[in-house]
Every structure is written in structure tokens, then in C-alpha cells.
Amino acid sequence: MIEIIDEQYNLEQAFYLEKLEKIVQSLGLKGDMTIKIGDPEEAKHLNMTYLERDYAPDVLSFPFNEELPEGYYVGDIFICYETAASQAKENNVTLEEELFTLMVHGVLHLAGFDHETDNGEMLKLQADLIKNYYTTGGDSLQGNHSSEK
What we know:
The chain is an alpha/beta fold. The chain contains 5 helices and 4 strands. It has helices spanning 13-27, 40-51, 81-91, 95-110, 121-134, and strands spanning 2-6, 32-38, 59-68, 71-80. Strands 1-2-4-3 form a 4-stranded mixed β-sheet, sandwiched between helices. Helix 1 runs parallel beside helix 4 (95-110) and helix 3 (81-91) packs across helix 4 (95-110). It starts with a strand and ends in a 15-residue tail after the last helix.
């Protein structure tokens, strides 16, 4: 199960959850995860606390991959709404699409992908997932993406 925590931005959660659940299933991920949408102050605090970086990033992923009493927990994703809004303008896409892109990016990190160490596989898969699930809802995508990371 995916939970989106959005205390101030009023996202249309059902839109994202429907598509993200399909992506999670295609990646073979099993368990719960949380996506928090927050502000630059919280983003900067988390980035400094966990990565010792003094800026507000667009997305942070915190893989847990642990069995808890209530079930398996994959991890947490934090997305900075304001950074996403700024990037949407820079990338000439809607805020909805930029937020979805960042959610997919975070899910891929939780699945074990790392664009900083691979040869472009994660970002290629990210582009494919966005193309196939954002624009078509995933109905035309065939196959399983739980290949080697």
C-alpha cells in the first residue's frame, strides 16, 4: 500500500495512487511505502540531517526494506512541493507531471536503483515508466521491470 501524506497542498491523491500502484507492481515491490509532500524547510532539514547537504532537494528516498509487526515496509519518499513547482516551469511540464516524475524517481530508489552509480538504466526506466503510466495509465505497457539494478 502506498500512502501519500499531503497536509497543505491538496493533491488529487487518487490520480497518483492509481498509477503508482501499477508501477510498484511492475517493479515487483511488495510492502508499504509513504510519500510525504512538504515544504523547502523540511526538505532542507531532512537533507542536512541524513545526507549532510545544506539545500532543499526535489526528492529524497529513505529505503527501509524491513519486516515490521504490521507488515513489510519498503520505505519513505519526501518531495518538496515548491522545488517541484519550480522545476515544472523549467522543464515546461505541468506540476502534476513533475510531481509524478519525482514520485516515480523515489519509488525507483526504494526498489534499489541508483542513477549515481549505474550506466543510465534508472533514468531510462524512469522515462519509460512515466511515458507508459502517466500518459496511458499503464494499460499498454507489457512486461515486468524487476530486472537487475
